[in-house]
Amino acid sequence: MKHVIVLLLICTPFILNAQYHKAKLQMVDGSLKDGFAKLPSNKLLDSKVEFKVSKKAKVEKFKDSEVSKIMIRSKGGDQYVFERLPIVHLFKSFGREIEREKSQKHWVLLYQTNKKLSSFSLAQRYKLDRKGVMKSITGSNSIWEFVYFLLKRTEEDKAYIVSGMGFTNGQVRKAMAIYFNDIPEFVERINNKEFKKHGVHEVANEYAKYFN
């Protein structure tokens, strides 16, 4: 039993350090902080970003509202960008187009960008796996039903939900038709199921071609 306790005491610091990743924080006032940070979370009771200037430094806790972006670098050198943005849900109800903004900003993970649009995922929490790949995770027994996929034009300050794991093809087409209503020809292509097997970022790239 003593050996087990000693092993736990030895392992605990390594476990705690493993939760922190090389990071750069962009604060709301535009200033930058280099060091190590835990991954952001959208879980109900998580409302702070934990940060250290070095691995052995004292932990600083910043309110989510004080941080606008978090850049995480994996051990393999891959960089992941999180942004804290207002979220708008797009859907149709009884023939009406509805845009419903969530009451709070959320941390979203950037996974693709082009000259017109950025594509994000939105989940309850995020995890960097052993291979250095960032995962978007929705936990069981929570109010989170889906992992969502969102789009944001370069000139917009909000991200719009257009798809999600568990969405039907019809739900996705309706949301995209609302979001891309500035190009009627593109909406027609969406409604004609041209992009049935495309990912959100692939649809975003097709949309960007209208602005070449």
Architecture overview:
The chain is an alpha+beta fold. The chain has one domain. It is 21% helix and 39% strand. The protein has helices at residues 2-18, 169-179, 184-191, 200-208; strands spanning 21-27, 32-37, 48-52, 60-63, 67-73, 79-85, 87-93, 96-101, 106-113, 117-122, 125-128, 134-137, 148-153, 159-164. A twelve-stranded mixed sheet has the order 4-3-2-1-5-6-9-10-13-14-7-8. A hairpin with a 5-residue loop joins strand 5 and strand 6. The longest helix is centred in the first third of the chain and has 17 residues, at 2-18. The radius of gyration is 20 Å and the shape is elongated. The termini are far apart.
Mean pLDDT: 89
Order of helices and strands: HEEEEEEEEEEEEEEHHH
Main sheet properties: 12 strands, mixed
Oligomeric assembly: single chain
Into which percent range does the helicity of residues fall? 10-25%
The percent range for strand residues is 35-45%
Q: How would you classify the helix and strand content by structural class? A: alpha+beta
What best-fitting shape do the alpha-carbon axes yield? elongated
**How far is the first residue's CA from the last residue's CA?**
68 Å
Rg calculated over all Cα atoms: 20 Å
As residue ranges, the low-confidence spans are: 1-17
Annotation, overall tally of beta strands: 14
Could you give the order of strands across the largest sheet?
A: 4-3-2-1-5-6-9-10-13-14-7-8
Tell me the number of helical segments per DSSP (H or I, 4 or more residues long).
Answer: 4
**Structural domain tally:** 1
